[in-house]
Specification:
The longest helix is centred in the first third of the chain and has 16 residues. The chain is built from 4 helices and 7 strands. With 185 residues, it is of the alpha+beta class. It binds zinc ion (ZN). Zinc ion (ZN) binds next to α2.
């Protein structure tokens, strides 16, 4: 354990970094380990079940999840996922999603029900796992962030219309391709 973890500023819709394809993590060095700690800390403070590196201004292929918090917000079993690859996907599952980077917008998204995913952990070990249901949904949502895709890209035209005022409002805060969540949020 290093210093106290830091709350990282959240990038929101309208920030260019959320639309970039993130780069592979080349090496699990101390800087990445520190960053993982800050990312996890920020996810919990923002009450998320997942948070991807681009959402805090780092365009690298890495995210943290803790899907168990959906049913028990005191549970803390963070899983740091680095350089993920979705190897197989099947089925269909529809659920309501939101995103820390798109405040106050919620809509149904259709995802794959089951995934086989491989990823590297913080010790540099590669894992392959099969997941389904809510965990699979969270992983697909976070993995999308690494490719510059947001959940609102996957919602129905009607849901987009319903949320258009909120979306415009968020976008209107962007300055020169940077949009950072204000402190009071
Ligand atoms: Zn998100």
């Amino acid at each position: 354990m290093k210093k106290e973890p830091t709350l990282l500023p959240i990038r929101i819709l309208g920030d260019d970094i959320l639309r970039q394809k993130a780069a592979e993590v080349a090496e699990i060095d101390p800087e990445i380990k520190d960053f993982a700690q800050d990312l996890t800390y920020t996810m919990y403070l923002k009450d998320g079940v997942g948070l991807a590196a681009p959402q805090v201004g780092k365009s690298i292929r890495m995210f943290v999840i803790d899907p168990g918090r959906r049913d028990n917000d005191k549970a803390q079993n963070p899983i740091v996922i680095i350089n993920p690859v979705i190897e197989e996907k099947s089925g269909e599952s529809v659920s309501d999603e939101g995103c820390i980077s798109v405040p106050d917008v919620f809509a149904e998204v259709k995802r794959f029900e089951k995934l086989k995913i491989s990823y590297t952990d913080l010790e540099g070990k590669r894992h392959t796992e099969e997941v389904s249901g809510f965990v699979a949904t969270v992983i697909q949502h976070e993995n999308d962030h690494l490719d510059g895709v947001l959940f609102i890209d996957r919602i129905s035209a009607l849901a987009k219309l319903k949320n258009s005022a909120k979306i415009r409002q968020i976008l209107s805060k962007a300055v020169d391709g940077v949009n950072i969540l204000s402190k009071e949020k």
